[in-house]
Amino acid sequence: MKRPTFLLSLAACAGLQTTLPAEEAKPAPAAPAPAKEEAKPEAEAKPETKAKAESAGGHIFAWPFMEWEKMKPRGGTTQGSEVTLFEGAKDSWKKLHEPGLAKQEQDRRAILAMAGNYRVSFDFTETLGLAENFKPTRPYFSWGTENVTVIEDSADFVSLQHSLVMYFKDEKGETSGPHVMKHWRQDWTWEDPELQVYQGDMTWKKQWTPDRKGRWSQAVFQVDDSPRYEVAGTWTHDGGLSTWRSDDCPRPLPRREHTIRKDYNVLSGIHEISITPNGWVHIQNNAKVQVDKDGTRRTVGKEIGVDRYEEITAPELAPAFNDYWTKTNGYWKDVRDTWATILKEKETFSMKDTYDGKQLFMIHFGHAAKLEKGEDAGDNLKHAQETIGHFLNP
Asked: Are both 302 and 364 inside the same structural domain?
């Protein structure tokens, strides 16, 4: 099954922004001029406005909110190759639904089912704002191709490494690639006794988890393997639907918001991850919160998000990732181990956004690039420890 081409900005990916469908990159056709009686405040917009927007190719979600022309999504700008979706049910889906599984094992198989080669889409829109005369920012929509690989697996712990694997088309329609970029990581721990909880202001604090029986924590790490958030939740398996639902979880702003918003500093929400026959879906219900240094909290709005992972058979992603990982995994393991030591030893820690004018991922990626080229990059562990140390506040 063929799908349209995707768009991707490599630089944006490093900042956790990915792709946008090609058809979204084109300006939507102009809507018919509204009749005079339709020129009313947005709260009084008539239902036919939605029909006009849809016929003109507008992106409508949870209408009514504001005029559809102003809701065109933002995202990437680079064109890539077509993808072919996998048909049928993955083997991991079938293993998840084998009869007689113990609860912990069924949970673990649901987590393992998230591994694969995917077309991924990220769709976020604001649902409400609490400022007077609130006007939402444009929705965010992007997508790309991503490999998710199991890098650790035991009865009580699973680690999944995400990596973008991308093919680009130039103005002549010629394809280049694959280009591999290490993306985020998720670690799952059974009955985790403690969590690293985000406090705002780039600060994390270790917290005890008394309510952990029968639950899994999900720890999410940035592209540079620095912590992002960690939260506990429960897997349920009912009527063929396997879903993990988290507690409320504070975390730093994602790049899609960090670059355009200054009115809040914590994104706090509930996650739901559901496994499908050909992938998985991650739904977020988030509050946008300003947390001051004295602990004062003020919610400025809310958003919902849907991240969809659909298995693909073409283009091939795993060979390119495996080649990259073979050359660089030794360094990335040193980075992970360095962070594991910090998280074990420190009750709380905070980070700088930049050091010597660079962000953390830039320095790590530069070192990994040397290894990928076969160059002598020096002592990997020393480089990992010194680099991370530069970004930790005393």
From this structure: no
Distance CA(177)–CA(312), nearest Å, equals: 17
Mark whether 304 and 341 lie in a shared domain.
no
pLDDT grade for 175, boundaries at 50, 70 and 90 = confident
Residue 14: pLDDT above 60?
Answer: no
C-alpha to C-alpha distances, 264 to 38, 136, 198, 200, 220, nearest whole angstrom? 35, 14, 14, 10, 21
128 lies in the same domain as 87:
yes
Distance of CA 189 to the CA centre of its chain: 19
Last residue in a domain, options 308, 333, 348: 308
In a domain, 227, yes or no: yes
Of 188, 181, 259, the residue nearest 224 (C-alpha): 181
Closest alpha carbon to 272 in 238, 240, 247? 247
Hey, how many other C-beta atoms are within 10 angstroms of the C-beta on 180? 20
Asked if the model's pLDDT at residue 161 lies above 60, the reply is: yes
Give the residue ranges of DSSP H helices in the chain: 10-14, 22-25, 48-55, 91-96, 103-112, 255-258, 318-345, 360-372, 380-391
Helix (H) or strand (E) holding 203: strand 203-208
- Cis peptide leading into residue 178 (ω within 30°): yes
Q: Are residues 159 and 107 in the same domain?
A: yes
More reliable by pLDDT, 66 or 40: 66
Q: How confident is the model at residue 54 (pLDDT cuts 50, 70, 90)?
A: low
Confidence category of residue 46, pLDDT binned at 50, 70, 90: very low
Contact 216, 189 (CB under 8 A): yes
CB 195 within 8 A of CB 230: yes
**Which residues, 6+ apart, have CB-to-CB distance to 81 below 8 Å?**
5, 6, 167, 168, 169, 175, 177, 315
Number of separate domains in the chain: 2
Angle at the Cα of 2 from the Cα atoms of 26 and 19, rounded to 5 degrees:
45
User: pLDDT for 239-278, tens place per residue?
Assistant: 999 999 999 999 999 988 988 899 999 999 999 999 999 9
Domain holding 346, by residue range, is: 320-391
- 3-class secondary structure, 71: helix
Looking at the fold, whether 65 and 154 belong to one and the same domain comes out as yes
Within a domain: residue 364? yes
